[in-house]
Specification:
Elements: H1 2-17, H2 21-25, E1 28-36, E2 39-43, H3 45-54, E3 60-74, E4 77-88, E5 97-108, E6 111-121
């Protein structure tokens, strides 16, 4: 199960990186909760799409995943925590940031979906 959830997290980030809305939408349970440097938000699908599309200029690049942990709580719920290093695609001098992330995944109709995601930028 840990490998499956880790692969879903990577697929989610690849969708963000490649600006593939359908990939990200298909891995998200709405409304979803997102917590990070901009606060805590419960986001419906329409708002999520608007936020996703408005970030067109922010081209993230996933540089590294590490320290991945997951725990399946029961047949339909799992939690994950990991470190991710992000950069901006196209920048010659790659200034990266590292975040500690957590996600809650739920299984609906046999499909794993992310219902909560948090990011905390690590101090250097």
């Amino acid at each position: 199960m840990e490998t499956q959830i880790m692969e879903l997290e990577k697929k989610y980030w690849e969708g963000m990186e490649e600006k593939e809305y359908e990939t990200v939408r298909n891995l998200t349970s709405f409304p979803c909760i997102v917590a990070g440097k901009n606060g805590v938000h419960s986001i419906d699908e329409a708002t999520f799409k608007k936020m996703f599309e408005s970030g067109e200029g922010d081209k993230i690049k996933v540089l590294n995943f590490s320290d991945f942990h997951s725990q399946q709580l029961d047949d339909n719920n799992a939690v994950t925590a990991y470190l991710i290093e992000l950069g901006i695609a196209g920048e010659e001098k790659q200034e990266s940031s590292k975040c500690a992330c957590t996600s809650v995944w739920i299984k609906k109709e046999g499909k794993w979906l992310c219902t909560l995601h948090t990011e905390s930028e690590l101090s250097r």
